[in-house]
Amino acid sequence: MTDSPIAGADNNTGSYQNTRSIKGMEVSHQHPPREVSSQSPIPSVSHLMFPDVMDGFNVQILTRHFTFTPASINQAPNNNQGHAHIYVNDVKIARVYSSWFHLPRSLFKTGDNVVKVTLNANDHGEWSINGNPISSVVKVVIPAPKSR
Q: According to the lineage, what is the superkingdom (predicted)?
C-alpha cells in the first residue's frame, strides 16, 4: 500500500466554501448548532485518509482557525476551540481530540462509504455558520473482494 492519501475533502484554504456540509447527510447523533462568533475568524476543517497497511485507514484532520482542547471537554464553549466528531456512513464513531485518528476496516462496507468530520465546541454543539455545520466529507470506495 502507499502512504499517499486516497481522498481529501478540500485544500484547507479556510474559506467558507471549504467548510461545508452535504444536504441530506443528517446524522442520527447530532448536536445542536453553535454559531461561530462574528468577531472570530471562520474555522475550517478538511481531512485526508491514508490506507493503513495493517487495517483500515488513518485519518488526518486538518483545521484552520481551530484549536483542539481536550482538557476543556464538557465545559463552556470558547470560540474556535473544542474537538471533532467522526462519522462513517452517518454513524458517529468517536470524539476526536487531535489531528489523527484510526478507522478500522470493519466500519466500512463494500462499495461507497462516506467519512464525515465535524468541528464541535466543548459542550459538543456543532460549530456552524448560518446554521450550516462546519464539516468535511470524503467518499471512500471499498472494492469487492476478488473471486478466485
A: Bacteria
Distance CA(2)–CA(84), nearest Å, equals 26
**Displacement of CA 60 from its chain's centroid (Å):** 9
Q: Which of 127, 102, 128 lies closest to 115 in space, CA to CA? A: 102
Cell of 96: 476526536
Q: Give residue 119's region: left, alpha or beta (phi > 0; psi -120 to 50).
A: beta
Place of cell 461507497: 112
Q: Give pTM, 2 decimals.
A: 0.80
Query: Which region holds residue 147: left if phi is over 0, alpha if psi is between -120 and 50, else beta?
Result: beta
Amino acid identity at 101: F
Confidence of residue 148 (pLDDT cuts 50, 70, 90): confident
Measured CA to CA in angstroms, residue 65 lies from 6, 12, 19 at distances of 25, 11, 12
Cβ contacts of 31 within 8 Å, gap of 6 or more = 85, 120, 124, 125, 126
pLDDT digits (tens, 9 = 90+) for 53-72: 999 999 999 999 999 999 99
| Parallel/antiparallel/unpaired status of strands 126-129 and 33-35 | parallel
